[in-house]
Design goal:
Blueprint: H1 7-19, H2 33-40, H3 44-56, E1 60-63, E2 67-70, E3 79-82, E4 93-102, E5 117-125, E6 129-138, H4 144-148, E7 152-153, H5 156-164, E8 172-180, H6 185-191, E9 199-208, E10 211-220, E11 228-231
Antiparallel strand pairs: 1-2, 3-11, 4-5, 4-7, 5-6, 6-10, 8-9, 9-10
Helix pairs in contact: 1-3, 2-3
Length: 234
Amino acid sequence: MQKKEPKYLTIIQALETELNSSKFKKNDPFYSESDIKKRYHVSSTTAVRVLNQLAEKKYITRIQGKGTFVSKFNLSTSVRITDTHPYDITQETVKILDAHLTDKVPSSYGKNYKDYVWSIERIREVDEPFQYSKSWFDQSLLSAEAIENSIHVNSVYELIKEHSQIDMYKQQFVQNYIVTTAPTTKISKLLNVSSTDLLIREERWVKKDNKVLEYTDSYQLPKYFGLHIVSANA
């Protein structure tokens, strides 16, 4: 017989779902101990345990004498980012983990896209890894020869420029950022973070003449970018 999940865990999961939805914004008042007791018919001990664990996960902040509030940058909060690179960029390298052609593209790349694209996974590092990225590039931008001897590169964009004479930095682009955690164990291990450490997720689309050239999904450590994070809801 399967053991029933402790009630406090069930409550935490339910509240995490609410916190990751659009119901709450930064600094909104959150449920009090009394609210949780009444809502879920639990003891004070259970209510406090729930709030403490949500605080440990950085979903909420508990302020003595004032109450409980949604953390400024709870998961899925949209953010604006100023990237100041507080490190010597000449020491930065990019390690390609995997590169292959595929006809399986994420829906975020574009609807009904059926051509082959380059799927490239890579790690940026200085003294240690600080950004994991997975990108899908239009097939015409690169060749197998261009990637073959590029285990360590300064930039995939430089490879693209050499191969196709397209400067990706000058193309139209859109970038979205949210605060999140590592979505997989693989990414946690590559970035040496725990499942609760906050990361910045960046999604980037690059287009030319309304054609998608690149879609990138990346996860990065804020400290390596000197990031100034401001809620888009501010």
